[in-house]
Amino acid sequence: MSQGAAHPVLAQAWRGETVESEHRGSVAVMDATGALRLQFGEIDHPVFPRSAVKILQALPLVASGAAERFGLSDAQLAMACASHGGQPAHVATAAATLAQAGLDAAALECGAHWPGFDQATRALAALGQVPSALHNNCSGKHAGFVCLGCLLAQDQGADPRAFLRGYVQRSHPVMREVEAALQAATGYDLADAPVGTDGCSIPTHGIPLRQLALGFARVASGQGLSADHAAAALRLRQAIAREPFMVAGTGRFDTTVMQHFGERVCCKVGAEGVYCAALPELGLGVALKMDDGNTARAAEVVMAELLASLVARDDADHALLAPLRSVTLRNWNGIEVGRLSASLPN
Question: Which InterPro entries match (predicted)?
Fold first, then answer.
């Protein structure tokens, strides 16, 4: 799906004082009226946003009343928008969400994998245990889907466990609600959009960066959303700002940035070099895609550079972002060997 040949270089990896690698990509910054504020590269070709749109996928959880019915906390709502590291607090929070809906991990259809946080993996292994679906980085999102499904089942007088089977399928009522919210927020017709299967087994839709940025501008401002989705977006942003650890975890970019900026920035990484952000103070949405799928390195430094130019307003903001915009690279002996830096076009 990439159109990378003509895209500009957005980040460079340096070995000593020589550029060793270049990472090309595209960026869109929009406001909620659809006005384009900043563009690098081609932004109208569909990309799979993957986990970057979790806050959009969580809108029905709140708008439907499911979050209120099951008494979900800020931490649990933040987890519904998370790609977490599988740390103990993440696992416990996902389990609590399911318990409040009267279910357990057996209801999750996201699959199991070892925690992304190395110490959590080591701790599990040391106990001779194996990971469950609760350790999946998407378990919070799926716990939210389960709560939404339980509400839909109750409203129809159906057995929740039976109703929830296959909730990851596009045709299931839960995924239909999620898809409708994604389409409404981005203003992009998903009926004929490219569609694939995400790592956690739900559908992922091909959406242009222009429309993704528009969706996040709407999340940032509430403008262009229905009243219930605007209220849901605000509730989710507030929950994330109060519990940023739950969205990612120790040492992770999203948690680090949102712990500092609070409600000024709501950012979310996606797989394969996609990053999105809502900037409520400015009413702007940001969406970027690295052509080579470089998420943990290139996409992060590009997002940090964009935040430095769009959001940072004092020395503390710049100090927080400086090491994220230009990351020191070290070898296994701890010797500095280079850096990875953003290099946005002038």
Answer: Asparaginase_II
Sign for the CA dihedral angle at 66, 67, 68, 70 comes to positive
Helix (H) or strand (E) holding 326: strand 326-330
Domain count, the chain: 1
Beta strands in 9-132 (DSSP E): 9-15, 18-31, 36-40, 46-47
- DSSP at 5: G
CATH number assigned to the domain comprising residue 288? 3.40.710
Is the confidence at residue 268, as pLDDT, over 80?
Answer: yes
Reference 205, options 1, 6, 25; nearest CA is 1
pLDDT of residue 132: 97
Contact 77, 234 (CB under 8 A): no
For residues 83-111, one letter each, b for 16 or more C-beta atoms within 10 angstroms of the residue's C-beta and e for the rest, the string is bbbbbebbbebbbebbebbebebebbbbb
Task: Please report the DSSP string for 218-281 in residue order.
Answer: HHHH-TTS-HHHHHHHHHHHHHHHH-GGGGS-TT-HHHHHHHHHGGG-EEEEETTTEEEEEETT
Q: What percent of the chain has pLDDT over 90?
A: 97
> Of 204, 259, 283, 316, which is closest to residue 30 (Cα–Cα)?
283
CA torsion 305-309-314-315 (nearest 10°) is 30
Contact 220, 32 (CB under 8 A): yes
- CA atoms of 109 and 125, how far apart (whole Å): 23
Cβ–Cβ < 8 Å for 109, 142: yes
Q: Which helix (H) or strand (E) holds 339?
A: strand 336-342
Domain extent, residue 180, equals: 4-342
Q: What is the pLDDT of residues 283-329, one digit of tens each?
A: 999 999 999 998 778 999 999 999 999 999 999 999 999 999 999 99
Report the alpha-carbon distance of residue 193 to residue 189 in Å, rounded: 7
